[in-house]
Amino acid sequence: MGIPVVAMGNADGQGGARPVVGTITGVNQTITASDEGSATGKETLHGMLQTDARIVPGDSGGPLVNAQGQVIGMDTAAATGSFGGQSDVGFAIPINRAMDIAHQIQSGKATGHIKIGLTGFLGVLVPGQDAATATNPHRQREIQLQQQSGQGGFGSFGGQQNLQGCLANNQNMGVPSRIAPVDSGTLVDGVLCRTGAADAGLSSGDVIISVNGHAVTSPSELTSLTEQSHPGQKVSVTWVSPSGQRHTGTVVLGAHPPE
Fold first, then answer.
1. Fewest CB atoms within 10 A around its CB: which of 21, 156, 173, 206?
2. Burial level of 29, CB count in 10 A (0-12/13-18/19+)?
3. Binning pLDDT at 50, 70 and 90, where does residue 113 land?
4. What is the pTM of this model?
5. Lowest mean pLDDT across 8-22, 62-76, 121-135
6. Could you tell me how far CA 131 lies from the centroid of its own chain?
7. How far apart are CA 207 and CA 246, in angstroms?
8. DSSP classification of residue 96
């Protein structure tokens, strides 16, 4: 530990490769990571390198380099607030592990953890983080509002609103003020334009209750179902609107965008 490093990446999506300096402060760390806007909730990562170089959103995938110019890791996550008494804490996948995964992808060998090729995408924005595993849509909405309050209004949420029409991206996504009167399913926060969900007529405040006849009880379950699909596939989606009307339509899946 104490090895000098430089971390680079597309900090805050601003373009370029902004370098930040620091040192290795831990090895073989286990962390629980979450991604706002992702319905997969939380993920446990093992064997991570820990650094006090200030890694921020957008840096993921960038190199962590030592003083000899050797890439020793791939920037992956950062802790918010303080972590073990440290205010700036970043984590990187050791380069050997990252290269093993890259070689497996190149070989075309998929596993339960490594998927080859693009997966299908409905085009809906759904609750993530702690809300992803909640089965009651009203609870999903409540958790998102709590998250929004804790962020002081900062982030991708655009307040309480039922958006009319579709969204170009998730930057102005809101927490729906009115949602479907059901006790189980996946709350739709918004629908992206030029996607199968938009074409089928889904909108903010709807609750998806089944896909291809399989009950969908939470956002994470919807994500699991779509991860088994592929672009161009047609699926039957059943949802309930805020007015209580039940709809069933055929949705042509697009390609899941990069995360």
1. 21
2. middle
3. low
4. 0.59
5. 8-22
6. 12
7. 10
8. H
